[in-house]
Amino acid sequence: MNPWILTLILQTTAVLLPVWAADKHDHAGHSHGQGQLELVVQGGSVKANFEIPMESLLGFEHLPTTPAQKKAMADLQAGVTQPDYVLSLPKAAACELKSVEAQSDMFLGQKSTHSDLDLSMTFTCSQPAELKQIEFPIFKQHTRLKSLKVDMLTPKGQGATTVKANDPVLRW
Questions:
Q1: How many structural domains comprise the chain?
Q2: 11: which residues sit within 8 A by CB, 6+ positions away?
Q3: Residue-range definition of the domain harbouring residue 109
Q4: Chain centroid to CA 110: how far?
Q5: Which pLDDT value is given to residue 1?
Q6: Using CA of residue 154, residue 155, residue 159, residue 162, what is the dihedral sign?
């Protein structure tokens, strides 16, 4: 084989292999019924970053076409901006929502084969010693969502766990 052609094949493979691997990795993270949560509880601050398939929240991942689908989308869009819709912090911790940002291709009217809700929430709590658990009412609102894989940093340390719909409380 011509050394020039062999070099070209190896160089092309070296360039395309990471792109192919990254593409496979991105799609592996999208599992219907299962969301992801990165949680940091530090001092009086709580930061939560969710990634949840829209199918798990709405029952579909395409742009809404029927009146019922449009209402479900509008209800979701309004709901996720409310602090107790997704998660509930202990009242004794005296937490206040400081920021919330919800994004989805579907909210923007963009078609996508795998749409997710990317939701970031930040709270400040005046009694952080009372932060010992978080409840997730989102499971009651969206029964297709079965679990959240959680990567967390709390006063007890770093860890990972899964919160399930049948016990929607994260304790530490």
A1: 1
A2: none
A3: 33-171
A4: 19
A5: 57
A6: negative
What is the rounded CA–CA span in Å between residue 111 and residue 12?
Answer: 31
Question: pLDDT in tens for each of the 172 residues of the chain?
Answer: 555 443 434 444 344 334 333 333 344 456 789 999 999 999 999 999 999 999 999 999 999 999 999 999 999 999 999 989 999 999 999 999 999 999 999 999 998 878 999 999 999 999 999 999 999 999 999 999 999 999 999 999 999 999 999 999 999 9
149 located within any domain: yes
Q: What is the phi/psi pair of residue 51, to 5°?
A: -135, 115
In a domain, 69, yes or no: yes
User: Rounded CA gap, 35 and 154, in Å?
Assistant: 20
Q: Is residue 28 part of a domain?
A: no
pTM above 0.90, yes or no: no
DSSP-derived secondary structure for the chain = --HHHHHHHHHHHHHHHHHHHHHHHHHHT-BTTEEEEEEEEETTEEEEEEEEEHHHHHS--SPP-SHHHHHHHHHHHHHTTSHHHH-B--GGG-EEEEEEEEE-TTTTT---SS-EEEEEEEEEES-GGG--EEE-THHHH-TT--EEEEEEEETTEEEEEEEETTB-EEE-
Question: Strand 147-154 relative to strand 34-42: parallel, antiparallel, unpaired?
Answer: parallel
